[in-house]
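Hey, quick one: can you model this chain's 3D structure?
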Amino acid sequence: MTPSIDAGRPLVDQAVLDRLREELEEDEGYCRVFVGNFIDYLPHRIGRLRLALTSGDLDGSVDAVLSLKTSSQMVGAQRLASLAMALEGEIRTGGPDADAAVVLPRLAASFLRRISQCSRQTMSRLQDQCSPGASL
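Sure thing. Here's the predicted structure for all 136 residues.
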């Protein structure tokens, strides 16, 4: 994967957060709780992905990367969702005949550092946007 896959994507798309607020008929508290739950659970999602990839667990890897991608998209974490989407594509490209015990740890080496770094940046940005006085 080239570094340009996630370049140009915002860490957090404010339009997605605005749409979420509208859909929840902003009850501002609920939207903040929703985003807060994403932030709180993100390290667990990354940990599940790391474990599945490094242990060569194909089903677990697919499940973990889909969870990361979907939850990221729901809160507007575009760059993180883009990285998860690229990783998902690589996992699926390996095909059922590929040796998951070899392919998945290689993908871990290629993707996990960037995903972890992006997740930290995303959490920080979302925390800033959800802090008291910030407009969500």
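One thing worth noting: The radius of gyration is 16 Å.
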